[in-house]
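Hey, can you fold this one?
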Amino acid sequence: MGYSRECVEQRCLEVVLDTNFIILLSEYPYLIDELNEVVPFRSVCVLLTAVLEELEAVSKRLGEVRRRMLGKILEVLRGRCVVVDAGRSRVVDEAIIDYAREHGAVVATNDRELRRRLREMGIPNVFFREESRRLEYEGFI
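Sure. Predicted structure:
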């Protein structure tokens, strides 16, 4: 299992952000800070290029206000996260799973199917609990 040099030196976890989680952050920007509280160790956010490409396609279908909100949160995330090229020809969920397995990373997503697959593979994840409007951590490191 490989870990990024930055995380090994700082003793932290990588948290891979999924497309729908980033869209969620555009609606609830306070969740960015909560992410550090819910992950059991210090963390570094990772944006995969495949996710950024998917966001670009999704943003074209959004209304003007939501597109602007998404643009603002992406500016914040690019300043706080590490952008990693995980290959362009893959399905985004597969790229996320592969990266998380290879780097021992946590995945932040609200996609039910992806969360189910992560659970089956023993990959920890962070998700948004609608009732409490809070993030929850699931899994073991």
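The mean pLDDT is 88. Let me know if you want another pass with a different chain boundary.
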